[in-house]
Amino acid sequence: MDPFSxxxxxxTPLEGGWSGETFLAEAGGERTVVRIYADPRHPEHAAEIAxxxxxxxxxxxxxxxxxxVRRPDPAAGMPALLVTELLPGERADLLVPALDADGxxxxxxxxxxxxxxxxxxxTLRGGMFVDRDLRIEPFDMDLVGxxxxxxxDLERMDWHRGEVEDLLRxxxxxxxxxxxxxxxxxxxxxxxxxxxxxxPGTLAVTGVLDWEFTHSGHPFTDLGNLLRFERAPSxxxxxxxAWESRHGTPADDALDLARAADLVALxxxxxxxxSNPVATRAETHLRAIVDQADWHAVPD
Length: 300
Description:
The chain is α+β, with helices and mostly antiparallel strands. It folds into 2 domains: 83 residues, 2-Layer Sandwich (Phosphorylase Kinase, domain 1), CATH 3.30.200; 203 residues, Aminoglycoside phosphotransferase (APH), C-terminal lobe (Aminoglycoside 3'-phosphotransferase, Chain: A, domain 2). The chain is 42% helix and 18% strand. The termini are far apart.
């Protein structure tokens, strides 16, 4: 018998993620969410970092309250885990397809506000959080170097040398654009409708989930994620309007910086094309950008 069953806890996998490590737990009439960090690729302090991030932003954004954090116990065969409250609402990606233009605009504004709040939380340098105190280990996020580091993987995906060279030229232009913003901020790094809960009646945000990839980085990163695949005009206008209201960046400039910043994620995902539907879609998207030499391009 596993330790959860032995303790009278029933675990049901939650839909929406690719990790298979997030579960709905029920015990004593209480429902909570349990994230199990069993994959050896997780950083050593992943559960503690996630808990600290939730505590950091709680009160600024709707995030679950932390109930328990456990460090791994190799001797007992127990991975690290994080237990949080179960928030109300439905995943935005399940609600968005049925919305009209007005609803899409309202959701866009709500998600744009989340991205704007995150971008308004300043940090001293870019890098990864490495412990529960959220100490930052700096990294070099030069786009040209990032493409070079993924060259072999892209070529294994049948990208020929000329396409990679074209991508490098786009990366050089995008990096010059990104360098016009000379600060860093908190970045969720996976901010999209799949990781946001909405009240189905009011379309207000009731939860921002899955902080696994959060780091300190470029302030327009999360905005780029929100605008990567979701291109409905009313949604895009809502996102950009919320951003401009908080930060004052004109919509066209914000969109250009967002799409430039999103190249980092697109390159990383494209290099893993075939591993999941999002990565495969990202590669198709990146190929369109290279074909048209424009980071605003979309596949035909």
